[in-house]
Write a structure and sequence with these properties.
Layout (H helix, E strand, L loop, with lengths): L5 H8 L9 E2 L6 E2 L3 E3 L5 E3 L13 E6 L2 H9 L8 E4 L8 E4 L1 H4 L9 H7 L4 E3 L3 H16 L5 E5 L2 E5 L4 H4 L2 H16 L3 E6 L2 H10 L5 E4 L4 H5 L12 H9 L5 H5 L3 H8 L3 H8 L15 E12 L2 H21 L2 E12 L4 E12 L2 H19 L3 E9 L2 E2 L10 H21 L9
Parallel strand pairs: 4-12, 6-8, 11-12
Antiparallel strand pairs: 1-2, 3-4, 5-10, 5-11, 6-7, 9-10, 13-16, 14-15, 14-16, 14-17
Helix pairs in contact: 5-7, 14-15
Bound molecules: 2'-deoxycytidine-5'-triphosphate (DCP) and magnesium ion.
Length: 439
């Protein structure tokens, strides 16, 4: 096996280890496994497209920008190109890393790490503050590229989106051609690098965009999906976090192959009612639709905890952050919601929801928070148990201003609106963690 280049080393560092032998492709900067074909212009095509049954014939592209905030900083200041750049909070104020350039990641620096620790690992790194407004602006330009190819765009975050392109194939050719053109246009027009994954469903497309990062372009074909999934650690399956990974490890289940070959009774003890869903993902099956904002039925935010949480105040703190994020996304999209829903998943994977519906729709954070808080407190009083996941979502969406106003008397509502506007502006300028309301 030839010496691993820098890129291969980074691929290894990204937690998932290929079982494949990485072979350096002399012609360009990609790597091949026995399953990979290097196609035109350096794409790594995994498998060859054959006619597929309907359920597997969707084409979904997942785009995820490389080291997004850090790359935008390098773009705006050419002196930073090729250097270790960290975007994040002040190390003296217990700030954390939001993004790290790949040059910094070689030293072990990654997102969510305390900036002070990152600087110990990589003393030469240049630390810059979050400039959210600029990243939002760049994100809009990236979306403008997507919109040329499909109206089916589901943004996951500023730098990440699913694109449903099944309906675009007649106009633009294959999903590979569309994905490649999007990647090229982002490079040519914005001078930024996007990693692209293409597959028949969201789970595999997202996995694909991550498989050869940075500068990845990976297509996962149906006939090869199982071979690709099998050697990966179970943590690659959506929803399997550290706690569950540990529980699986104690049953000697480390890889996706071991998981799908485990008797259902054993899995049921760990996943409860989610067992069938997890098994489908392990087999590369995922029927979820790409939901664009325009037709979004709900907006939500959820968090899986590293350790299970029962403490009411900690849960309220997490919930408040989620309400603020969701409310801000509502306002960004000029929408209002009629219903709020809490999602609570216990340590045994039992999942319950608690919903409340307003008399009239709203996008006011205080109104959403009031209902969310009451619902959480009521649940906590009756049935508090250790939670592994907490989520907050809104549904019953409609265009802002089209509903009745019954939540607050008008002067109070205007005051709340001004408060929300100021809040959005501050978070836009200084980042999501710049400001939190009191519980
Ligand atoms: N982000 C953040 N805090 C985190 C994780 C991410 O503020 N804990 C921000 C900064 C990232 C952006 O979101 O630049 C996108 O997140 P990604 O997980 O896609 O990470 P990057 O784009 O930085 O790197 P890559 O996608 O190449 O792994
Ligand atoms: Mg990214």
């Amino acid at each position: 096996m030839p010496a691993l280049s820098e890129k291969a080393a980074l691929v290894h560092q990204r937690r998932f280890m290929y079982n494949w032998q990485l072979l350096k492709d002399s012609g360009n900067d990609t790597f091949r496994s026995p399953l990979c074909q290097t196609s035109r212009r350096g794409a790594v095509t995994i498998g060859q497209g054959k006619p597929l049954p309907m359920s597997e014939s969707r084409r979904i592209i997942h785009v995820d920008m490389d080291a997004f905030y850090a790359s935008v900083e390098q773009l705006d200041n050419p002196d930073l190109a090729g250097k270790a750049v960290i975007v994040g909070g002040d190390p003296k104020r217990r700030g954390v890393v939001s993004a790290a350039s790949y040059e910094a990641r070689k030293f072990g620096v990654h997102s969510a790490m305390p900036t002070s620790q990152a600087l110990r690992l990589c003393p030469e790194a240049i630390v810059l503050p979050v400039r959210m407004k600029r990243y939002v602006e760049v994100s809009r330009h990236i979306h403008a590229v997507f919109e040329k190819f499909t109206p089916q765009i589901e943004p996951i975050s500023l730098d990440e989106a699913f694109l449903g392109v099944t309906g675009s194939l007649r106009l633009f050719g294959s999903a590979e051609e569309i994905g490649r053109t999007i990647k090229d246009q982002i490079k040519e027009q914005l001078h930024l690098v996007a990693s692209v994954g293409i597959a028949s469903n969201k789970f595999l497309a997202k996995l694909a965009s991550d498989l050869d990062k940075p500068d990845g372009f990976v297509i996962i074909a149906e006939e090869d999906k199982q071979q690709i999934l099998d050697p990966l650690p179970v943590g690659r399956i959506w929803g399997i976090g550290k706690v569950t990974e540990k529980a699986l490890k104690s049953e000697r289940i480390d890889t996706i192959e071991q998981l799908r070959k485990t008797p259902t009774e054993v899995l049921r003890r760990i996943f409860g009612e989610q067992t069938a869903h997890v098994l489908r993902l392990a087999r590369g099956i995922d029927d979820r639709k790409v939901e664009s904002w325009r037709e979004a039925r709900s907006i939500s935010s959820e968090q899986t905890f590293a350790t299970d949480i029962t403490d009411k105040d900690i849960l309220l703190g997490v919930l408040l952050g989620q309400v603020e994020d969701v409310a801000q996304r509502l306002r960004m999209n000029n929408l209002e919601a009629k219903t709020i829903t809490l999602k609570l998943r216990y340590d045994d994977f039992r999942t319950v929801t608690r919903s409340r519906t307003f008399a009239g729709p709203t996008d006011v954070t205080a109104a959403l928070w009031q209902q969310a808080r009451e619902a959480l407190l009521k649940w906590h009083k009756r049935s508090a148990g250790p939670l592994r996941l907490l989520g907050f979502g809104v549904s019953g969406l409609q265009k802002a201003g089209s509903g009745q106003r019954q939540l607050f008397a008008e002067p109070e509502r205007e005051k709340q609106k001004r408060l929300d506007k100021a809040f959005d502006q501050i978070r836009g300028k200084f980042g999501r963690d710049a400001l939190r309301r009191g519980k």
